[in-house]
Design a protein that fits this description.
Length: 166
């Protein structure tokens, strides 16, 4: 017995293969649009307007760090919810610690979160008010008002205990 098989042809849009093949490029277009939106909406905190001058000042920065090393400066930094305490000591004979320190907490990638504070000497250390920044990796820069020396360190917040820099 011969049976005649009638094959009814479906239109192309009812076949799964064209849709499967078109889904790859479609997903790429959607992902590109999302990436473009994120790039436009987010700011790039790494870009500096005066990067050339900062590059020229690198040697001065290195000499200020070397000066702190020669003086034997060591800072113990304690960050609490609303306060900043610094104990500064020097091993160089006759060195007088300054009356105030400039402390800068900077985020490596988000310049908008940076904080700078001038803290005054109170008793045997320095104290000032500072709001505790967001959790994560932070850079701490401590320098005198005359900017003759500097101490640079890093901390992962929230930190338990004192951070020793120097």
């Amino acid at each position: 017995m011969n049976k005649l098989i009638s094959a009814t042809a479906k239109p192309w849009y009812r076949e799964p293969w064209p849709w499967l093949l078109a889904s790859g490029p479609l997903l790429v277009v959607i992902a590109s649009a999302i990436s473009f939106w994120i790039a436009i909406r987010g700011s790039d905190g790494l870009v500096s307007e005066d990067y050339y001058r900062q590059g020229l000042a690198a040697q001065e920065t290195i000499s200020r760090s070397d000066k702190a090393l020669a003086l034997g400066l060591v800072a113990r930094v304690r960050l609490t919810a609303d306060a900043l305490n610094v104990q500064l000591s020097a091993s160089a004979p006759g060195y007088q610690v300054p009356p105030a320190l400039r402390v800068t907490l900077s985020h490596p990638t988000r310049a908008g979160m940076d904080q700078a504070q001038l803290i005054r000497r109170e008793g045997s250390g320095y104290s000032g008010r500072l709001r505790l920044p967001a959790a994560g990796y932070w850079l701490i820069l401590i320098e005198d008002e005359a900017e003759t020396w500097r101490l640079m360190g890093s901390v992962v917040l929230p930190a338990n205990g004192a951070i020793v820099i120097g």
